[in-house]
């Protein structure tokens, strides 16, 4: 439901649905530690942050993404997912004209995914970095 609302650019409805999905998962059988690092919850988390960015709710989006980045350091999570979160935070900073911070995060994301096989995360990170420059 959130993805449909996001696709139709109804960011308010999409953010409401992503929030409900994340809260539902958190209240389910997962413990807090399992929830914050669970890869399948990353898409709704990232999409929620993107919706909040489009609604100019920058602080909320930043809080969600920086919390994940902090939690992802110990124990380490999948580098591709971590790079997606870094790129999403960089896009948020870019939307606020914080270009130095955005470029730094894009550079981190590119270096994280560069070592593997060519993929969409790498292409997206490079494109975001280039746009920031």
Q: What does this protein structure show overall?
A:
This protein is mainly alpha-helical and 133 residues long. 77% of the residues lie in helices and 0% in strands. It is built from eight helices and no strands. The protein is globular.
Task: Detail the topology: elements first, then pairings.
Blueprint: H1 2-7, H2 11-27, H3 32-37, H4 42-54, H5 58-72, H6 79-95, H7 99-114, H8 120-132
Helix pairs in contact: 2-4, 4-5, 4-6, 5-6, 6-7, 6-8, 7-8
Q: What does the oligomeric state look like here?
A: single chain
Classify the helix fraction into a percent range. Answer: over 70%
What shape does the CA trace take? globular
What is the mean predicted local confidence, pLDDT? 78
Discrete helix count: 8
Fill in the keyword field for this structure.
133 residues, mainly alpha, 8 helices, 77% helix
In short:
The chain is an all-alpha fold.
């Amino acid at each position: 439901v959130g993805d449909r609302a996001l696709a139709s650019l109804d960011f308010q409805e999409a953010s409401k649905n992503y929030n409900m999905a994340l809260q539902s998962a958190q209240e389910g059988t997962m413990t807090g530690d399992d929830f914050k690092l669970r890869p399948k919850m990353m898409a709704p988390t990232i999409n929620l942050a993107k919706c909040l960015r489009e609604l100019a709710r920058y602080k909320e989006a930043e809080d969600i993404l920086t919390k994940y980045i902090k939690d992802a350091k110990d124990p380490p999570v999948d580098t591709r997912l971590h790079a997606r979160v870094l790129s999403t935070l960089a896009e948020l900073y870019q939307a606020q004209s914080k270009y130095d911070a955005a470029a730094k995060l894009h550079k981190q994301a590119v270096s994280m995914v560069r070592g593997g096989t060519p993929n969409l995360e790498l292409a997206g990170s490079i494109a975001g970095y280039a746009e920031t420059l």
